[in-house]
Amino acid sequence: MMKNNYYKFKNVALLLLALTSVATLASNQVQGVRVWPSPDNTRVVFDMAAAPEHKSFSLDKPDRLVIDLQNIKGSSNLPAVTGESSVIKAIRSSGDGNSMRIVLDLTKATNANVFSLPPTPPYGHRLVVDLPNNQPEPNLPPPTIRAARDIVIAIDAGHGGEDPGSIGPSGFYEKNITLPIARQLAQLIDRQPGMKSMMVRTNDYYIHVNRRTEIARGQQADLLVSIHADAFTSPQPRGASVWVLSLRRATTEVGRMLEQTERHSELLGGVAEIIKDSANERYLAQTVLDLSMNHSMVTAYQVAGEVLDELGKVAHLHKKEPQAASLGVLKAPDIPSILVEVGFISNPQEEKQLKSASHQTQLAKSLFTALKRHFETSPPADSLFAQQRAREHRVSAGESLSLLAQRYNVSVADLRDINQLASDSIRVGQTLRIP
Ligand SMILES: [Zn+2]
């Protein structure tokens, strides 16, 4: 008897539950449509009131992507679309009061990826359509090795597009702090002979964290600098910090990449051409990668220290030593990578400071000063910086300052200045800089 009643009750409860969920689903709604173009991909985001029930398929002649949404209230009107992309001619919709059909008229056939995303502030439920560009803007050809090449700094402005990063107490987005700092750093680098920047993202769009290191690798970057702003659950923490790859993460990544034979050549560059014996390949790849990882980590740690020295002059430091982390963007074992947290966006004073253009400029300048100094001190052997550094002269017996000035076609005064000489006397074995 008890049992029977229990089942009866349970069935009623289930029925009620089912009715409630139908009612909930029927109240879904498309609240916004945003188009985010990027060089690789166009992302269309439908902001939804609840988790979407969706199906999609492609049609050709003309190329279209059709998305059917179920249980949509007000299904006949699609909100106004913000943003545009060369891949999309138009976005239109039709509805019968319960379901909605959205059609994307495309300029060419593309392999669309349609998926839903759970709420992440400031966004709620979303239906996302990724339309890869069929002919992605080709990455610039890798820099050809010349006698004196530029040092390439990949600059990664954290977050972007769909991903605002952390949000400050006044509602400011991290992605809107990282991009202007990255742009200014790029400008300073590009004005410096012997250095060249490449921006991992050039505008407000989303790039997956794995793709960020791939872009840097495609340009054979000497260093990857990822720019972020920190956040915490309480408003007190403040200050900048610099992160490098943790040894444990690096070791795991090397292992994972070695499992994928097809990635060896990507990681090893020219070396892979020499390694033709597949039995030895893994062993050799391991050795070469260990060496390059070791170099990457040492370089990253040195650069991180130099960046902290400079940042400390213009900002409060949260941590005075480089921190080791397993952050995604730091996982490239073959490219020295650092992640700079320029301050805490969750701290009201720092949020205000980070928003100010003059502070952003100071941060960019201090990053540049540190990077430039690092590469002046330890230039890659084939770089212009290395060539310039090599303009030194070791004094032999019988040489005088005036003789050297004549030989290098410079003035005695310039030689004296650059070498900070108090007089014209020089000694055998002394190393002089040549202006
Ligand atoms: Zn961040």
From TrEMBL:
Name the reaction it catalyses.
Hydrolyzes the link between N-acetylmuramoyl residues and L-amino acid residues in certain cell-wall glycopeptides
Record keywords: Metal-binding included? no
User: PROSITE patterns given for it?
Assistant: LYSM
> What's the Enzyme Commission number for this chain?
3.5.1.28
- Which keywords does this chain's UniProt record carry? Cell wall biogenesis/degradation, Hydrolase, Signal
Kindly name one Pfam family recorded for this protein. Answer: Amidase_3
Q: Which family does it belong to?
A: Belongs to the N-acetylmuramoyl-L-alanine amidase 3 family.
**UniProt protein name:** N-acetylmuramoyl-L-alanine amidase
Q: Which organism is it from?
A: Rheinheimera maricola
